[in-house]
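Re: that backbone. Tokens:
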């Protein structure tokens, strides 16, 4: 009796085709996952800017403002001096472009709802009337 070793060409092609299909499905899911990670990172970065402005207002007992335009975020003190400036990662944009104002007690003048957009993905950032920033 002859003993056969290895795989036939048909078996090998079948396994390669199966691996190709699994790889294509995995690549599509990985791209969606990476897009979600990018928008989450941009939203967290934006919320950190707002939190820094609030903390500075509390610490110094002076009004602070955060100006938003596109992916640029600027923090100003009560005298209008630029305290910090930065850009959001991954070319993210924040809408609506506005100026968020904090009192010397760290309270915003109203509740704000922002949308951070990175490519096709979006994430909301909410500034509550208490000054707390949440990412629902």
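Recovered sequence:
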């Amino acid at each position: 009796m002859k003993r056969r070793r290895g795989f036939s060409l048909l078996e090998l092609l079948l396994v390669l085709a199966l691996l190709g299909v699994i790889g294509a499905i995995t690549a599509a899911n990985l791209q969606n996952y990476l897009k979600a990670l990018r928008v989450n990172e941009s939203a967290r970065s934006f919320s950190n800017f707002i939190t820094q402005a609030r903390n500075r207002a509390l610490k110094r007992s002076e009004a602070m403002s955060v100006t938003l335009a596109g992916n640029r975020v600027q923090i100003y003190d009560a005298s209008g001096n630029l305290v910090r400036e930065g850009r959001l990662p991954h070319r993210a944009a924040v809408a609506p472009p506005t100026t968020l104002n904090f009192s010397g007690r760290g309270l915003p003048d109203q509740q704000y709802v922002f949308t951070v957009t990175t490519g096709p993905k979006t994430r909301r950032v909410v500034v509550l009337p208490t000054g707390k920033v949440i990412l629902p």
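The mean pLDDT is 93. The chain has one domain: 9-134.
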